[in-house]
Amino acid sequence: MQTEQTATPGDTAPDHGARRAVTVFPVLVLLAGGLGLLMPDTLRGGKEAVPYLLGVVMFCMGLTMTGQDFRGVVRRPWAVGIGLVAHYVIMPGLGWLIANALGLSPQLAAGVILVGCAPSGTASNVVAYLARGDVALAVSIGTVSTLLAPLLTPALTLLLAGEFLPVHAESMVTDILKTVLVPVAAGFVLRTAANRLVVRLTPVLPWVSVAAIGVIVAIVVAGSAKAITSAAGVVFLAVVLHNGFGLLLGYLAGRAGRLGERGSRALTFEVGMQNSGLAAALATAHFSPLAALPAAIFSVWHNVTGALTAAWFSRRPADD
């Protein structure tokens, strides 16, 4: 979740509400998943609400955006470019490799690849802050990766997942425009027009996002509840490998691009953390609830590993 920015020496810091939300987010999503398993018949019917719930998350993200986010892209286009290339090469490629290496079923393989083709995770900039990374760079990469998602996510999914299942890239573009770009733009416009009002609401926004993603996970888990017993183990392994190698290769990409320690920490999370809410919504709409299972598990796992990695980084010098 993108968060309200306040100036700090040489950095951009999320507010305390966002940090608390990220801390408790995995627990809330686990509870939501458990609810989906316990009440599958009740929650399965909420499938149609998933795109709207994602729209709420993206609208909240737009509300936290400022012109400063875009000026950061102009000031450091090379660094942002490295982050974008790393994100949209490493995670889709890893998804394809892992799906093939584990011999996943077509539905699960498409779901894992779709997670890899999604833009940066909505909590990645908060975790970058906790890791004493370059938050301004993280926000810029996350913002641009989200804006590019209508083009890159369907194209990469078609390229890499097309061998497993039919991929209707054109309708996927339309869905991403409606559930991502339009809500983000609307939130940004409202933030610009009514800045004082939005700033007052900022502490609530991360919790709205957490609640919406929790409901999405509950619906996704309910839709694939019958298959979870047999598929959960291999899907969890796929998610662990995908996220773990993503974090590691993101950091190494930053070092290879000479972005420094703080910049490399930012890339760690902008590469390894995905917008799994978007992946779950697209998988549910275009494939099946089973294909959305990797995204649901990723929603929990990447926040756990993100927090642990940030804690490890925070205890080490942030300067080269």
TrEMBL record:
It is found in: Membrane. The chain crosses the membrane at residues 21-38, 50-66, 78-102, 108-128, 135-156, 176-193, 205-225, 231-254. The keyword Transmembrane helix applies. The keyword Secreted does not apply. It is a multi-pass membrane protein. Keywords: Membrane, Transmembrane, Transmembrane helix. PANTHER family: P3 PROTEIN-RELATED, SODIUM-BILE ACID COTRANSPORTER. This is Bile acid:sodium symporter family protein. It comes from Actinomadura logoneensis.
